[in-house]
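step=encode ok
step=design start
structure_in=
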């Protein structure tokens, strides 16, 4: 095999690994979700305002 082809194949494999790693990190679960469930926030010290009062 030509030395230039080996270098190109290694660069291509590294680019595929990099893209796969980016996709995996974007899909994998994080400590706190970004949705509106408030799972990462502590609201125990906040007084609740009751409607109509």
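sequence_out=
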């Amino acid at each position: 095999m030509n030395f230039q082809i080996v270098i190109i194949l290694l660069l291509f494999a590294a680019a595929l690994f990099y893209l796969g790693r980016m996709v995996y990190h974007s899909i994998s679960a994080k400590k706190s979700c970004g949705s509106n469930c408030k799972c990462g926030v502590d609201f125990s010290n906040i007084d609740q305002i009751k409607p109509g009062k």
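step=design ok
step=annotate ok -> Residues 1-27 form one domain.
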